[in-house]
TrEMBL record:
With LigD forms a non-homologous end joining (NHEJ) DNA repair enzyme, which repairs dsDNA breaks with reduced fidelity. Binds linear dsDNA with 5'- and 3'- overhangs but not closed circular dsDNA nor ssDNA. Recruits and stimulates the ligase activity of LigD. Residues 263-302 are annotated as: Disordered. InterPro entries: DNA_bd_Ku70/Ku80, Prok_Ku, SPOC-like_C_dom_sf. Belongs to the prokaryotic Ku family. The gene is ku. This is Non-homologous end joining protein Ku. GO terms for molecular function: double-stranded DNA binding. The lineage of its organism: Bacteria, Pseudomonadati, Pseudomonadota, Alphaproteobacteria, Hyphomicrobiales. Keywords: DNA damage, DNA recombination, DNA repair, DNA-binding, Signal. Residues 263-272 have a biased composition (Low complexity). GO terms for biological process: DNA recombination; double-strand break repair via nonhomologous end joining. It comes from Alsobacter metallidurans.
Length: 302
């Protein structure tokens, strides 16, 4: 079955336009979902809306949106009122400017969408816009109305199609200063930085999303299987909580030894009679630097 588009309209670059469709490039749905039950009967309960004055249930046909203008005073809004609002970005993704990709702060990035031509007639113009962007080495910024909100969207070539990433507005991103202002500027000894660099090098690798899974959700699935089979679910052992490091130099040294042991355990063992494989760069033994001794004995108090 073909994927269902979230939005259909036109992609426009100056006087060149083509019909396009936007498809969600990510999913927030979870494998495990829960229903609310009545603990006494085991029956699934339903949520109903009740008028607080009459105490009567309000059916979906009688429900309407309302915007509060004062206490207990609302302006009612129907879907038809919202559908009647038409601005250009309701049906057109009009590219306004091109900027370097590196200028887009990752904090502003929200939901990704695949953008593809919506019919055969649009394919040529779509390819022209895509290749012009690819050869220019820039990303496009445009506006589009999604879920009754005009959003900024960053557009870049993605294989045969385009990838559109919805961007947050400036007022939606919190300033970092309030969270980091109490962190002092601390001088870091060179030997500590050297040890930290060794750990970073040994943990270096490449991004592969297949390496990661939601281990909590996996544990939930296993628990559900056990309960379904009638087994008593035992409390899982409590994971040890890390604490602040008291002796940082000692912790760095022990971290290197731990990483070294883990790396050695992961290496394939050679067959009997075969030559020992050469050590890779990351597997080479690294001698942690010794702490620097103060010259001239103890320091004099000033």
């Amino acid at each position: 079955m073909a994927p269902r588009a979230n939005w259909k309209g036109y992609l426009k670059l100056s006087l060149v336009s083509c019909a396009v469709a936007l498809y969600p490039a990510s999913s927030s749905s979870s494998r495990v979902s829960f229903n609310t039950l009545n603990r006494q009967t085991g029956n699934k309960v339903k949520r109903i809306y009740v008028d607080p004055d009459t105490g009567e249930e309000v059916t979906s046909d009688d429900q309407v949106k309302g915007y509060a203008v004062a206490k207990n005073s609302y302006v009612t809004i129907d879907d038809a009122d919202l559908d009647a609002i038409k601005i250009e970005s309701s049906h057109t993704v009009d590219i306004e400017k091109f900027v370097p990709r590196s200028e887009i702060d990752p904090r502003y990035m929200d939901a990704p969408y695949y953008i593809a031509p919506d019919d055969r007639v649009a394919q040529e113009a779509f390819a022209v816009i895509r290749e012009a962007m690819r050869e220019g080495g820039m990303v496009a910024l445009a506006r589009v109305v999604i879920a009754r909100r005009e959003r900024i969207i960053m557009i870049e070539p993605w294989g045969k199609g385009l990838l559109g990433t919805v961007l947050r507005y400036g007022y939606e991103v919190r300033d970092a200063a309030a969270y980091f202002e109490d962190i002092p500027d601390m001088p870091i000894p060179a030997d500590m930085k050297d040890l930290a660099h060794v750990i970073v090098e040994r943990k270096a690798g490449h991004w592969d999303p297949a390496e990661f899974e939601d281990r909590y959700e996996t544990a939930v699935v296993e628990m559900l299987k056990s309960k379904q089979a009638g087994a008593v679910v035992a409390d899982a052992p409590t994971a040890p909580r890390p604490s602040n490091v008291v002796n940082l130099m000692d912790a760095l040294r022990r971290s290197i030894e731990t990483e070294k042991a883990a790396l050695a355990a992961a290496e394939p063992k050679p067959l009997a009679g075969s030559k020992k494989p050469k050590a890779t760069k990351n597997a080479e033994a690294v001698t942690p630097p010794e702490p620097k001794k103060a010259k001239g004995g103890s320091r004099k108090r000033g």
